Amino acid sequence: MVGQAADAAPALKEIFDEQCIQHFADEAGQVSSAFDRQSFLACFGDLDRLSLMARVKRVAEGLHVALPGDFRSNVATLRELAPRLNNRFITLVLPEYVAFYGTDDFETSMDALKFFTNFGSSEFAVRHFLRRDLPRTLKVMEAWARDDNEHVRRLASEGSRPRLPWSFRIKPLMLDPSPLVPILDALKDDPSLYVRRSVANNLNDIAKDNPAWALDRIERWPLGDAGTAWIAKHALRSLIKKGEPRALAVIGAGGEPQVKLTDLGLSPPVIRLGQSIELEFVLSSTTNETQRLVVDYAIHYVKKSGSVAPKVFKLKVLELAGNAVERVRKRQTIANFTTRVHYPGHHAMEILVNGQVLGRTSFELLPG
Asked: What is the mean pLDDT of each run of 10 residues along the chain (368 residues)?
């Protein structure tokens, strides 16, 4: 992904402001003498009320209105426009144009998406083609997964995510992810962290609907390879947070944690919004053997309705030597974010080691 959700990051949509629209008009006019600047600018009278993705779509529609040619000739113009745009994020408009107007010209569209992804990302646009013809589009994306260009390889993985944020879900892949095997296997040891992160996110999507399938796939991989092991760890992060034994075993943290938790403290016990809490505890090994421990904590957030919902946070992966003692500290600010609003009330907190709750504490969040 190239950003956060539209409603969650209102500042992000302001990239597509009047100055940006003028920039599109200026540069499009430079690459095409037939570009109708007046018609293009007339499309944005209601820009202020549009969300981020609605603005992306509107610019694509404006280009369609202002360019006089057919789809292929307009795409040729947009290819010239791409390197002239002054912000990678706004190039999302170009593959969006392909998604809206190129579904009847598959080969031209696929070639255009491959080209445009070098300037920003075609991950959202390609999903329209997956929804329209899944086998044919995945066949092209399998070839992208073997491309020399890391942006193209990432497009193969990111565009085929079953649950890509900001986009509609690919339900057939949520039900049966097996068509993704050629892409995932081709990229399982990719040299680019940019690509590996996308592969991990794809598998994390899969694990939400098909955890056993994701584990079966990962367990077949050569986890002695550092890049592949990195993908596995990040792909299984949701299952690891849940304490799934097979997922923990993949990262070497399987089995019962042989530790004792003591000196659990949380201060201050009462805070207001915007203030911080500090968590502290001690883990003492109860075995002579070194063990790998996945240490997390969960905050049971109070919801608007008064009910609570836990959110698990990563703390650390710990190599604890036999009979060793480790003091763990964590400071967290309780503040509203675009993705979470806090409500006053009693907030329980749990310490999890290898997915097992070893300690509980709490704090009170006051109003205001």
From this structure: 40 87 97 96 92 93 96 97 95 97 97 97 97 98 98 98 95 98 97 98 98 96 94 94 90 88 97 96 96 94 94 92 96 88 96 94 92
Q: Can you read off the two tokens belonging to residue 114?
A: 């491959």
Go through 177-187 and write b for each residue having 16 or more CB atoms within 10 A of its CB, e for each that does not. bebbebbbebb
Decide if 292 contacts 253 (C-beta within 8 A).
Answer: yes
Helix ranges restricted to H, the chain: 10-13, 18-31, 37-41, 52-66, 71-81, 93-101, 106-116, 126-132, 134-144, 150-158, 171-175, 181-187, 193-209, 211-220, 226-235, 237-241, 245-250
* Domain encompassing residue 193: 10-250
Residue 269 and residue 223 in one domain? no
User: What stretch of H or E contains 327?
Assistant: strand 325-333
Q: How far is CA 260 from CA 156, 284, 353, in A?
A: 45, 5, 10
Separation between Cα atoms, residue 232 and residue 240, nearest integer Å: 11
Report how far residue 187's alpha carbon sits from residue 201's, in angstroms, rounded to the nearest whole number.
Answer: 12
Domain end residue (candidates: 200, 220, 250): 250
